[in-house]
Design a protein that fits this description.
This protein is mainly β. The chain is built from three helices and ten strands; from the N terminus they run ααββββαββββββ. The chain has one domain (5-171): Lipocalin. The protein has helices spanning 5-16, 29-33, 95-102, and strands at residues 35-46, 51-53, 62-67, 72-78, 105-115, 120-128, 137-145, 148-152, 156-158, 161-171. It is globular and about 50 Å long.
Length: 172
């Protein structure tokens, strides 16, 4: 069979899965989101407008978020943590020491959808380092300006205080 431009496009669309060939509204927001992004900044924003450490984890933070044309996504963020010592190996550490290392790392993956009309991205969590997140859908405000991606989470409550997170990324 001779491969033409038309058959190549049709085959690619058929193999890529739902939503791949669609632009995300007139702005093509979905297409602009695709690729790998490196974390620049992550903060918790309090109701007063003041900011603090992201989820009370110490900085600096390093991370990557990847949006694939197939609709798959993955996010990984590491906060500052003490340097690993050897020995003991991780399995030989106390439970408290292991939890300290694990709490400094955040990761999940799954699918995503963009709602360009609302400037939102939805992350459908398939698997997470935090097992309570499996099956959760995170809706985040999405801003793409000057080569920067900003994701703003939905507010959540801690005691009597409301807060949300703001994460800023740049192309990796």
């Amino acid at each position: 069979m001779k491969m033409t431009r038309r058959t190549l496009i049709a085959a690619t669309a058929a193999l890529s899965g739902p939503g791949v060939g669609r632009a995300a509204g007139p702005s093509g927001m979905r297409a602009r989101l695709l690729g790998a992004w490196r974390l620049l900044d992550a903060v918790t924003v309090y109701a007063s407008g003041a900011t603090g450490p992201w989820y009370d984890r110490p900085g600096p933070y390093r991370g990557v978020i990847i949006y694939d044309a197939s609709g798959a996504m993955s996010v990984q963020i590491a906060s500052a943590r003490p340097a690993a010592r050897s020995p003991p190996a991780f399995p030989d550490m106390t439970v408290a020491a292991q939890l300290g290392y694990l709490d400094s790392y955040y990761a999940y993956f799954g699918r995503f959808e963009v709602d360009a009309a609302r400037s939102e991205v939805r992350h459908f969590v398939d698997t997470s380092l935090d097992p309570t997140e499996v099956g959760v859908t995170y809706v985040q405000k999405l801003t793409l300006e000057r080569g920067r991606l900003t994701l703003t989470t939905q507010p959540w409550r801690v005691g009597e205080q409301w807060r949300h997170s703001r994460l800023t990324w740049m192309r990796a």
